[in-house]
Design goal:
alpha/beta; 7 strands
Length: 226
């Protein structure tokens, strides 16, 4: 699984928004599967760790969990794994009895308060808001329990109607939406696109394309994401 750097400017902006909100628990949600909640949630938790904030990353997407694979951990259900080098801890697999209880926002909010005794920030990775399968812990319940919510959208894929429906469901659940993150995973930087073209033309103009690649790599302005 691809990782997202906690030094990324978008993650820095998200971290500042969370800090400014005063929230001790944050739900990272998305409309549909594959939009990047695990990447954003993990990068946010790692950014908190860089700031000296003890963070707990909790994977509540039980149909398609991703935290255990991302951090290469194999915990028992309900076990919290501490990773001092990253400045965070992860709960990658909720115990069955907890998952049943945490369907109720009040129960999950109470658990987040208990975690607050040991962690300064709890980051929830959630199931998709508009999932077509039964989710043991609905994202709306997690967002309602958290003190703040962040909506992740996949650039070029998440349709406007899906975003509107996601926002409506969050509002109905009483979630506190503090911001949105646009995931540019499928939109490579201009530099990468131009370099790819040089390789395509290399069989015809090998020396010219090699020279052009060297010049492109020195043109740092082309590294800006579009």
């Amino acid at each position: 699984m691809t990782t997202l750097s906690p030094y990324d400017p978008e993650i820095e902006a998200l971290w500042r928004a969370v800090e400014g909100s005063g929230a001790r628990s944050v739900a990272v949600v998305a409309s549909l599967p594959g939009e990047g909640t695990t990447l954003v949630a993990s990068a946010l938790a790692r950014r908190a760790g860089l700031a000296g904030t003890q963070a707990l990353l909790v994977d509540l997407n039980q149909v398609r969990p991703g935290v255990a694979k991302l951090f290469n951990v194999h915990p028992k259900p309900g076990e919290i794994v501490t990773m001092p080098a990253l400045g965070l801890a992860v709960l990658a697999d909720a115990a069955p009895e907890d998952a049943m209880a945490w369907r109720e926002p009040a129960a999950l909010a109470a658990q987040a308060q208990r975690w607050a005794a040991d962690y300064n920030l709890v980051v929830f990775d959630t199931a998709p808001l508009l999932s077509k399968v039964h989710e043991p812990i609905p994202a709306t319940a997690v967002a309602a329990a958290a003190e703040a919510t962040v909506l992740v959208m996949l650039s070029g894929r998440t349709a406007v109607p899906a975003i509107r429906e996601a926002r409506l469901r969050l509002a109905t659940a009483g979630a506190r939406l503090i911001g949105a993150v646009m995931n540019d995973r499928d939109n490579p930087p201009l530099l990468a696109e131009l370099e790819r073209e040089t390789y395509r033309l290399a069989p015809l103009l090998p020396r010219a394309m090699a020279n052009l690649r060297r010049r492109l790599q020195r043109a740092t302005v082309l590294s800006v994401k579009i």
